[in-house]
Write a structure and sequence with these properties.
Layout (H helix, E strand, L loop, with lengths): L3 E3 L16 E5 L4 H9 L3 E2 L8 E3 L3 E6 L7 H9 L3 E4 L3 H10 L10 H12 L3 E8 L2 E11 L2 E9 L4 H15 L4 E5 L3 H5 L3 E4 H11 L22
Parallel strand pairs: 1-2, 9-10
Antiparallel strand pairs: 2-4, 3-4, 5-10, 5-11, 6-7, 7-8, 8-9
Length: 234
Amino acid sequence: MPIYLLDEDELWFPDPKEFEGDVVAVGGDLSEDRILTAYSQGIFPWYNTPGERVWFCPEVRSVLMLDNLHISHSMRNEIRKKRYHCTVDKAFEQVMLGCRSGERENATWIHDEILEAYVKLHELGFSHSVEVWQGEELIGGLYGSSLGHMFFGESMFSKATNASKFGFIFLAQKLKAMGWQAIDCQVQTSHLQSLGAEEMPRATFLEFLNEHLEFPTLVGNWGQMDCFQGKVNF
């Protein structure tokens, strides 16, 4: 199966269902419209060399069904300590930079052109961050984008014990309270698995995604919305 070379002047992606393997296209640009179009088809950019853009739609997808969120005994103890608190969309670029420098996530793909593209999406109200603070210090967080009732998680980082898990649990709880059903985690890791994420065949995920894109997109600064206030619970 050939890999499609995208034209920067044509806003289009091939149907991921046509492909064997995880890569569906290369090339194109990182305009806001292209990235949002990609998400609407279950595709996302992921590559290490600036300018050599590669677009993925994994054959096996990591997804957290919010009803299956797992809060371990150690995380329950962490929550009880009340050492951390969360905000939303308060420090988006700082979170991305934290993800880029986080050794645990090996996020070398968050180079300057990716950073610039997602900051623009954040300014337009489509990309969002959860910040985890200890006092006045940013010690963890995550970011991603949203269309319909689907949050597409991109990366997370932690500079203190369980900080990224704390932020992930916060987001999952807030989305569930609004009636959402899932977070797209893209590629499975032991970290995500410990939080309850499971693997799903690509065809199943794409059907699930289409159903959840029928809902209106919650555009804007989520931190200014009442539904994202409050604390982590268990």
